[in-house]
Amino acid sequence: MPHPDFKPLSLMSSGQVAANAEPWTPLPYADVPRFDARSVLPHWPRLHAGHHLPPPDADAPLAEGWALYHSGEFERAAAIGLLHGSEGLVLANQATAIYANYLEPREATRLAMFRQVIERASAQAAAEPDNCQALYWQAYALGRYSQGISVARALAQGLGTKLKGALEHVIALQPAHADAHLALAAFHAEVIDKVGALVGRMTYGVRAETSVELFERGLELHPHSPAGMMEYARALLMLHGDSRMAEATRLYEKAAAMTPADARERLDVELARAGLSD
With contact defined as beta carbons under 8 Å apart, do 179 and 218 qualify? Predict the structure, then answer.
């Protein structure tokens, strides 16, 4: 079981290489589910259980884009998304953020990608203040970017306040948005871990009990989320230390034993296995 400082930022080795236009690293696993524009739609409710995105029409270009995303063709999926306006930005931002989080081996490039998602999603949220997808991917990228530059530095820059506000807005607009519950839960735990319970509560309005409540609700809404299980495990260790090690380990074991529904979940399962081997 990993130490709570373990962060699922990437399955690849990292190095300080400047961002450039080199091709994205391909998915390293051949055993992922494969979809096309038609076959992805019957699986849509399971694939999007975390954030209830309406499906595209089967003959729409975005259907092919989403099929590529769920099959692990993140670069091609993002390129298609960028061609199709506001609706396509959801695909572009999700594909870019998930690729950067799990597969991009160069730290500078990874951070640059998160900044791209932050900028695109922030602009979309400013134009469409109640767009849950824009708000969520803005928050997701802010969270991963903050981990990359250090949570303490990100909090000092005000990024935590933006992240928390975006996720709270998503939950207010869409109470069944499981991924927003899980992300906000992780934020509460991460801030407490870095600044302490008292400063966290007084300065950022975070609480350990709120983190647990949000995790429980998020996993109730999306019980097949290996990423949510791992984040919950890390949070338990951050909030309570080794006294919750057995529970955290069980969560990792459950995540590692899951049958992934798509490429992103395949990456999560691999991370869970890697965590257990540490």
Answer: yes
